[in-house]
TrEMBL record:
Pfam families: GIY-YIG. Transmembrane segments: none annotated. Residues 2-78 form the GIY-YIG domain. This is Excinuclease ABC subunit C. PANTHER family: BSL5627 PROTEIN (PTHR34477:SF5), UPF0213 PROTEIN YHBQ (PTHR34477). It comes from the Bacteria. Belongs to the UPF0213 family. Signal peptide: none annotated.
């Protein structure tokens, strides 16, 4: 079965938190960083990966995404702070090729 991911993005000032789900995290991060999709993350400049979880089933990932989205900002910040207290971009060092 294909892996799936729930991920949290923020902007350079850490003022916005976006939650998404994907089956290809590398490709999805490329799309965010290249500003390919003109939605929420484009508008608010969210392209810094600060947290992600891996799942073996897309349905589990979707359920977790809904759970995280239903929480308040304080709970999201606590989740990030536990795993990534410096709010570093976890996708730094990944290879992205922009046209």
């Amino acid at each position: 079965m294909r892996k799936s991911y729930v991920y949290l993005l923020t902007n350079k000032n850490n003022t916005v938190i976006y939650i998404g789900v994907t089956s290809n995290l590398l490709k999805r991060m490329y799309e965010h960083k290249a500003k390919i999709r003109k939605g929420f993350t484009y508008r608010y400049n969210c392209d810094k990966l600060v947290y992600y979880e891996e799942f073996s089933d897309i349905n589990q990932a979707i359920a977790r995404e809904k759970q995280l989205k239903s929480g308040n900002r304080k709970r999201k910040e606590a989740l990030i702070n536990k795993e990534n207290p410096e709010w570093n971009d976890l996708s730094d060092g990944w290879l992205f090729y922009f046209d």
